[in-house]
């Protein structure tokens, strides 16, 4: 409670200072005192210390320039020739070399004797670093393609991977009818187009391109110089050419792998896909060969010749100056092998003009005119007939395998050829096909003109396409074949025939090895002279130049073999397809008497097997079957990667087989010789016995009689019927 | 007289170098002076100059290493084994003999 005079309320207040210590009770003091509960003695102390050198800071102003490259160019010091010479002649150098050469030579010899740095243990093992499971040896199914839009049942006759584009594979389909059925249904068949389909991995339902041909194609091949040119052989004996350069962009930009994640929906036939560029286009062929002058029966095999050489009418080999493949070889069931040239030929006789007017055929405008000069008038420039000599029956070739020789140019010619090719390449070589220069060039002599042919009867023929001048008649003729079954290599037949027929030329060989038609004759991609032939129920491997027989001939398999192919990466592996849909994988390093593996691919006959390598990690094999389905399988690591030294091991194996064959030949000769010797001896003995003279016979008889007497005496003595002289010992008596 | 002698020396030099060059696997031989300038070689110029310069420096370094460890020791021979071949250097006071060999086994 505060009490004050009323008059002092609200009056201004005066403040003044006062010393606190002078007045008592003016303040209350709260003195600090140490409390034991709250005193803490700090026993540890966390202190950081640093020793720092004496720091000095100085600053100055500099001119900053940007970094620049500085270079020094120099050339090494060298002696001139005279200085070198003087030095060489000095005594010091000689002394030095004399002193030093000893140790150098010791060191060199050490290296020659043995390489001390080899790790033998490591070299013994196979290379590690596998990609994927090493034990997995099965082919894995990757994709399969079927043409669902075709009305009739088709079979696949030939398969070829696109040589450049990944994931693109071309397939030729034919109707699955026998000859009589074809004739019967010929009207219906005319309405359906015969096709080559281009399948891509990105789309298993719709083919990317469809190439149309006048009749079923039985074999085709991409041109090695330009993968947009395709040549195919028809069932009616025509060759068909396509040029798909204008559609090349459609197939080049296919993305593979990206669309696999999306579900591919199968739409029924009657629903047209509105997406525009998925519509399949029929691409018409741009040239066919002449019907009268070509083959008369189905073309069974077609090959482009290499772009390094060309052949003329007589079979001589010339250099191919154009740098592109321009010749084809075909073989057909009419027992001929023809060679064709796609360049315009000089017409030998001028065409009558009236004929030309009749023959002007309208071609659709979108067909390229690359081969217009060939259309319907294309003739082969050379034909070889595979006749059997005296009989009228001829060999019917099913497959040919040309030698892989590429012609080695001389240096300046090569440069010229390359220039020409480059120039031509700038302007699309196949558009500007010029006439062949074969007439102006010199023929090349040492080129190998021989090739292998497989026939329908199961024979393998090794023949020559070159025609030679017959010395007797002066005419050109081709080498004639003569039959010498390799089993009866007594060679008597050979010689007789050679002399009897005056037109027979240097002999070529024929072997009957297979029990059915030979459908694969293929050179190994690793060895140029090793050929695989598959036919009937067995497989044979041949070496070019070894005339006595195949290096390897398998025994008959339980099922017929219908197609075969070498592996592209492993020299000792090849794939054979069977008629029951199994694929036999042979590995010569593992077993040579039977396949190493057998895997079921499909339910019907396999018609074609083609492996292809995309990268070191991915290798595919395309297997076509009789029902028109194309299966793509992935080849596992073990089958696609060769082991170290596999190439040389297989090479040694073939060498051993060649030696074995030679040994067998030698043994045959030795045995014949032995037989002859034995016969002679027997003859001699017989003769000897008759020639004994009378005296000899008498002497012999006498000796016999005497020995008989001796025997009689002994017997009687033993029986005790004759008295013996006492001088004989007891032992002798007993 | 001096001419004869120098010819003799040159013939000897030739013979020795030829002998060394004819060993199995020898790719190249060269004689280099104390400063690394090539005197005689069987390889082409650019390679010779490169080998000479680099190996000369390496030999100097090797020699100084050996002598640092033991001053009474000296480098007599230097062999460098690489993946592809072996380089042998025989040093001397004034010259260097370099031989490149491919053991090829």
Automatic annotation (TrEMBL), chain A:
- Write out the GO MF terms: dynein heavy chain binding; dynein light chain binding
Keyword Ligase appears in the UniProt entry: no
Claim: Metal-binding is one of the keywords in the record: no
> Superkingdom, according to UniProt?
Eukaryota
One GO biological process this protein is involved in is: cilium movement involved in cell motility
Keywords from UniProt, A to Z, are: Coiled coil, Cytoplasm, Repeat, WD repeat
Q: Which residues form a coiled coil?
A: 663-714
Please name the SMART domains in this protein's record.
WD40 (SM00320)
Task: Give an example GO cellular component term for this record.
Answer: inner dynein arm
Where does this one sit in the cell?
Answer: Cytoplasm
PANTHER family referenced in this protein's UniProt entry, alphabetically: DYNEIN AXONEMAL INTERMEDIATE CHAIN 3, DYNEIN INTERMEDIATE CHAIN
Protein name per the record: WD repeat-containing protein 63
Native organism: Camelus dromedarius (Dromedary)
> What are the top taxonomic ranks of the organism?
Eukaryota, Metazoa, Chordata, Craniata, Vertebrata
UniProtKB/TrEMBL annotation, chain B:
Signal sequence, start to end: none
What does this gene product do? Acts as one of several non-catalytic accessory components of the cytoplasmic dynein 1 complex that are thought to be involved in linking dynein to cargos and to adapter proteins that regulate dynein function. Cytoplasmic dynein 1 acts as a motor for the intracellular retrograde motility of vesicles and organelles along microtubules.
Instruction: Write down a Pfam family by its short name.
Output: Robl_LC7
Q: Name one GO biological process term.
A: microtubule-based movement
What SUPFAM superfamilies does this protein's entry cite? Answer: Roadblock/LC7 domain (SSF103196)
Give the top-rank taxon of the lineage listed in the UniProt record for this protein: Eukaryota
Check the record and name the InterPro entries matching this protein. Answer: DYNLRB1/2, Roadblock/LAMTOR2_dom
The residues covered by the Roadblock/LAMTOR2 domain are 13-101
GO cellular component terms, semicolon-separated: cytoplasm; cytoplasmic dynein complex; microtubule
The name on file for this protein is: Dynein light chain roadblock
The species is Camelus dromedarius
Q: What is the lineage of its organism?
A: Eukaryota, Metazoa, Chordata, Craniata, Vertebrata
Please tell me where this protein is predominantly located: cytoplasm
Subcellular location(s) of the protein = Cytoplasm, Cytoskeleton
Entry keyword set = Cytoplasm, Cytoskeleton, Dynein, Microtubule, Motor protein, Transport
Q: Which family does it belong to?
A: Belongs to the GAMAD family.
